[in-house]
């Protein structure tokens, strides 16, 4: 990536301490303990907590929790708006410069593995733009519509086509462009831009503490958390957003919102909704754990060890370079 010790990018020159773990592992409780111990501020590393009003369903920090430590990168845009990892990194750069100038400590906290990887390695850039190719694709879009453009992508990169909505024409065009110019699909090249490249990974000062969570006790905690979120008004939260600005393509993918809206519409019974969200959450947590296994230098804390929160927080703070 051509980075050097003289880089002006704060992501290259500043430490990036991160607390990660699967959903419902107990990240918030440990992060708050670390914050109170060290005086650090908390930076969300969660792709869905950027959306205003999506509080219960994303387990966003409550007002009481925010009073215990400053929180950043929450409530940035409406659920109807798009927000991606590149936008996140741009926002974080400005925040880190501000915090560093004032000598304030910080800790990234979240479970979005792809955003963690972007902090760790940067983003895959791919080949430079080709204006002639983009003009031809723009002509196709105007003549035949977004579906035709999306179908062209599906023919060369079905993985990216599955991930990208046909109306997300900017990213559809870019994915086609990457294939046309490089001969390899964008999805394949993104897969190869991974944590396995230790030389690239060492170019940024990422320090990771992870909370390991698995087994029957964790499975039960997942179900209890979903039940508590439903009791707390998750259905009302989702229907309020739908009746207001509405859910954009990205926000609509947030875990559980599809099911709670189906519950609100009478398409699912309460028990079936609880079962379905719990199942999807369990599957999501399994994918998170698969991502985190690639973090060779992470220091892991077992979820069951958090009974002595002060001791765990002290050890984590040392590992993270915060004390």
What can you tell me about this protein's structure?
It is a single chain. With 323 residues, this protein is an alpha/beta fold. The protein folds into two domains: 236 residues, P-loop containing nucleotide triphosphate hydrolases (Rossmann fold); 62 residues, Histone, subunit A (Orthogonal Bundle), CATH 1.10.20.140. Strands 3-2-4-1-5-6 form a six-stranded parallel sheet, sandwiched between helices. It is globular, with a radius of gyration of 21 Å.
Give the SSE map.
Elements: H1 10-13, E1 16-20, H2 27-38, E2 41-44, H3 63-68, E3 71-72, H4 85-101, E4 106-110, H5 113-121, H6 131-144, H7 146-156, H8 158-163, H9 169-182, H10 186-192, H11 198-201, E5 206-212, H12 215-231, H13 234-243, H14 257-264, H15 270-292, E6 299-302, H16 309-319
Parallel strand pairs: 1-4, 1-5, 2-3, 2-4, 5-6
Helix pairs in contact: 2-16, 6-7, 7-9, 12-15, 13-14, 14-15
